[in-house]
Amino acid sequence: MGRLTAAVSAVVLCTIAACGGGGNGPAPQPSIAITPPMLSFAAQQLGSRSPQAMVMVSNAGTAALTVSAVQLTGSDASAFAETNTCGTVAAGSSCSISVTFSPASSGSLSATLSIQSNASAIAASVPLSGQGVTTATWTTLVNAPPEGLQLCVLMTDATVLCQSAQSWYLLKPSNTGSYIQGTWSLYTSMPSNYIAEDFASAVLTDGRLAIIGGEYTYANNQWNFALSNMGMIFDPVTNTWTPLAPPPVAGSPNHWQCIGDAPASVLADGRWVIGSKLYQDVAVLDPATLTWSQVTAPGKTDTFNSEEGWTLLPDGSVLALDVSSAPAAERLVLATAATTGAWVSAGQTPEDLHTPSPTPQPIDAPGCPPYSPPGEMGPVLLMPDGNVFAIGANGRTAIYSPGSNSWAAGPSVPNGLNIQDGPGVVLPSGHVLFGASPGSAGLGLQYFEFDGTELVAAPPPADAAEDATYFTSLLLLPTGQVLFVDGSTTVQVYSPPSTPSYDPAWAPTITSYPAAVVAGSTYLIMGTQFNGLTQADAYGDEAQNATNYPLVRITNQASGHVFYARTHDHSTMGVATGSAIVSTSFDMPKAIEMGMSTLQVVANGIPSKGVAVNVTATE
Q1: Which of 28, 183, 275, 492 could crosslink 305 through cysteines, CB 3.0-4.6 Å?
Q2: Is the pLDDT confidence value at 11 over 90?
Q3: For the segment 267-283, what is each residue's pLDDT rounded down to a tens digit?
Q4: Nearest to residue 38, comparing CAs of 18, 25, 27, 53?
């Protein structure tokens, strides 16, 4: 937390003649000015690299300045690195030195940046300092987005697409793979007749983004309670939105007339399953044909699916914690390609985890029957150990063991905080990161990591005092870090503690790959655990942004620059697939550096071991 700080004055060195005095008037001489005179880096995790900090070298003299050497000195010089554009600097011009901090040991570290030039026999020096830490840190992105952001999703080329009402902005990582130093651009906009929020969403197996519903839609310069049943498919290759029709009419009145903030999940077979908000109905979308099929699934305990979060389990079933019938829980069992399944009991949580609705009377949306909200629920996440961590809206938690179909009480969130809608993320370590705040809308966000046994306090994001869980979003990045947005332009990245790391057994493995690849071409890669052991990201109900799909990262061995191929047509979307051989196709970027490179498959922030590939422009 905290940005790089630097003094705003400058160090100026010059010859006596250039600065005035001596002789019959000054001869043309260079004069060197250094800004800032010192650099102090924010706390940086061991083994990670800070954003670049710039030192400007200006020539305020009347002759060319020659910078003959730029050096790092001192006992901790190896913790810092520099690159520069300095050489000969014309009078009135400047050059830049980029400095980064990469600590290998804990504690306060310091060095000196020395700049030797013909302006003085004495080298100009800039003191450098930084703190190496093993604890978690928050870092504000170097570049802020143009507008405040709501929901962010990870596309299969490792870019991040974030909504701001009608506009969607794209965050592209830097050429070193850093999202902290990434850049934003306006990428696409939703059609003006469908600007929605709090909808069901998913990245499909072909890499397209699907959204449907919306608790609120924007019209007449305001957000309106709508329970929309409109939907859209966004194709990142063509940068186009295509309307997505709702599921076919079922019941009277139509049970799919009001989808709103529906529960949803991508199934292991790649179909997208959603639940009717106001009824028990379930439908599945075939991503290839974009057609819906009504699912016959008897046995559900409650009368509707409202406010539930659906979690994909390793056996392919979907876990739901009932909100209107809490503390009951159940699983939707639906075989591959089937449209007939069943809801089966998953027992009861030891304590009721939902909070009742603050709305005592039914509320109405246009064209919808009166709706009595059942309350709220927090995120429910499958962990790498196979258990499920359920975070109650009331601050209580529970742990579900699918193998024994049983529940155990988990630790309670301290200080009376709760999660009445809010995000959670499974970190590469297996810990669950989430925030909690007072009441249904109280401000004052605190963060925690669940380590499998207890809750451990984590540092809060920058504007935590003005945040509540329900308007924040978390997204696990391929780096193992977590992107945090809160509706503002202050976007931060959470870097988990250095220890513990992930279990190597959780990593993807590559068994078949092309040893030579051509820019712009498509290839198949095969291996195990390409989808990770969990969906990784969850919210209370809507705004789903799961990341259980493979990414392909390619690092040029000469430059160290990082590129991502766009993946698509994954053979499975199942989690914890074990030793089963799975596959995905990947499109090599057209703008990629040639030469020997290291290719990795990344799932939920955990990379496979790298394999060597030769990147060429032609076969």
Answers
A1: 275
A2: no
A3: 999 999 999 999 999 99
A4: 53
Q: Is 549 exposed, middle or buried (0-12, 13-18, 19+ CB in 10 A)?
A: buried
**Higher-confidence residue: 14 or 468?**
468
Is residue 107 within 8 Å of residue 130, measured between CB atoms? no
Per the CB < 8 A criterion, the answer to whether 303 and 324 are in contact is yes
What are the DSSP E strand ranges found in 179-304?
183-189, 196-197, 200-203, 209-212, 216-219, 222-225, 231-235, 240-243, 264-266, 272-275, 282-286, 291-295
Residue type, 112: T
Q: What 8-state DSSP symbol labels residue 79?
A: G
- Identify whether the C-beta of residue 462 lies closer than 8 Å to the C-beta of residue 485: no
List the chain domain ranges.
11-133, 138-495, 506-616
Which overall architecture, per CATH, does domain 506-616 show? Sandwich (2.60)
Residue 384 DSSP label: T
Instruction: Flag whether the pTM goes above 0.85.
Output: yes
Are 532 and 505 in contact by the 8 Å Cβ rule? The answer is no
In terms of CATH, what superfamily is 11-133?
A: Immunoglobulins (2.60.40.10)
Residue 402 tokens read as: 């699918």
Domain spanning 138-495, CATH class:
mainly beta
Residue 16 is inside which H or E element, if any? helix 16-19
pLDDT of residue 51: 87
Distance CA(486)–CA(544), nearest Å, equals 16
Residue recorded with tokens 């939902």: 354
d(CA 280, CA 306): 9
Q: Per the structure block, which two tokens stand in for 49? A: 């690299």
Distance CA 265, CA 268 (A): 9
| Neighbour count for residue 354 (Cβ, 10 Å) | 26
CA distance 142 to 491: 9
- C-alpha 159/C-alpha 174 separation (Å) is 10
pLDDT at 13: 53
Tokens coding 287: 């991503």
* Beta strands at 120-133 and 39-40: parallel, antiparallel or unpaired: parallel
**2-34 burial code (b ≥16 CB/10 A, e <16):** eebebeeebbbbbbebbbeeeeeebeebbbbbb
Question: Which of 597, 564, 567, 559 has the alpha carbon at shortest distance from 584?
Answer: 567
Quote the CA–CA distance of 450 and 410 in Å, as a whole number: 10
Contact 367, 360 (CB under 8 A): no
Whether the domain at 11-133 and the domain at 138-495 fall into the same CATH topology: no
